[in-house]
Design a protein that fits this description.
Radius of gyration: 19 Å
Number of domains: 1
Helix content: 25-40%
Structural class: alpha/beta
Distance between the termini: 56 Å
Order of helices and strands: HHHEEEHHHHEHEHEHH
CATH topology: Uracil-DNA Glycosylase, subunit E
Strand content: 5-15%
CATH class: Alpha Beta
Strand order of the largest sheet: 4-1-5-6
Number of helices: 11
Largest sheet: 4 strands, parallel
CATH architecture: 3-Layer(aba) Sandwich
């Protein structure tokens, strides 16, 4: 039986930034990836890729046992300021709201914009057939008003997702401008298979069902083809960059009871104070 594959030391160092529960799992995942394609990880070291700042394993910040959902995106945003190592959480987005609706930064991040609108519909704050214009302006005004309990920043929304047990994972942990996302995601499938197997094993030892796989888009659906994924409950939808995602009933049902748009700290600070803190 072949022995362990040598993993470049840089990746071993990066995985230590993850929660300790994940260290052995991530190392085994890298071993599996390297066994399938020995040239892949050394090739990354000589390439320019995102996310930067050694954030390759930033998604694994919570204890393994805290994971209740695995939200799988396609890959990191193709912009350094946006790619954080956490799927769908655009690092270039601070405030969620503006005086006319969603903030400019949210509107530029199409998937995030449609996810926000879906949450607003699921919470009954927007009608499914009126998710723009005056209707959205009214929601934003209420959100920004002193005494509102709605989240004000993407960081707060991410905090709520984590509190609900979401592992925010990309199908491909890196983005390179010269490599098609589908090709990149295929390279990471052995790694993701190890991650899912660890989640399945931990759930079985705790006497509960595995986390729900939330799969958006064609690249994320590659996860569905992994044999280990057969043992997981799944919630599958089109990618959020599609407008139809806003009215997706299964996604509204999944997220509707989570209160993701409610501030984790109750009433937020006055809008002026929030704006000042973002500068």
């Amino acid at each position: 039986m072949p022995g362990p594959v040598e993993i470049p030391a840089q990746f071993g160092t990066m995985l230590r930034s993850a929660h300790p529960d994940w260290h052995a799992v991530l190392e085994a995942g890298l071993q599996s990836l390297a066994a399938a394609d020995p040239a892949y990880l050394p090739g990354l070291l000589g390439a320019s890729y995102l996310p930067t700042e050694a954030r390759l394993f930033a998604a694994f910040s919570m204890p393994l046992g805290a994971v209740r959902y695995v939200l799988v995106g396609e890959g990191p945003y193709p912009r350094a300021a946006s790619a954080t190592g956490v799927c769908f959480m655009d690092g270039a987005v601070g405030s969620l709201w503006s005086d006319t609706g969603l903030s400019k930064a949210v509107n530029r991040a199409t998937s995030l914009r449609n996810f926000m609108k879906m949450l607003l519909v699921a919470d009954g704050r927007l009608a499914p057939d009126r998710t723009a214009g005056n209707a959205l302006e009214g929601v934003a005004a209420a959100a920004r008003a002193d005494g509102s309990t709605l989240v004000q920043t993407l960081a707060q929304l991410q905090e709520n997702l984590l509190a609900n047990g979401f592992l925010l994972l990309n199908a491909a942990l890196v983005f390179r401008p010269d490599v098609p996302p589908l090709q990149e995601a295929r390279a990471w499938r052995p790694f993701l298979a190890v991650v899912l197997a660890a989640l399945q094993s931990h759930a079985a030892s705790a006497g509960r069902q595995p986390p729900t796989l939330v799969l958006w888009g064609k690249v994320a659906a590659l996860i569905d083809a992994l044999p280990v994924s057969a043992g997981f409950p799944k919630a599958v939808a089109e990618h959020p960059y599609n407008l139809s995602f806003i009215s997706n009933a299964s996604m509204q049902s999944l997220f509707g009871g989570m209160a993701l748009l409610e501030s984790p700290n109750g009433r937020h600070a006055p809008v002026s104070a929030v704006s000042a803190s973002m500068k």
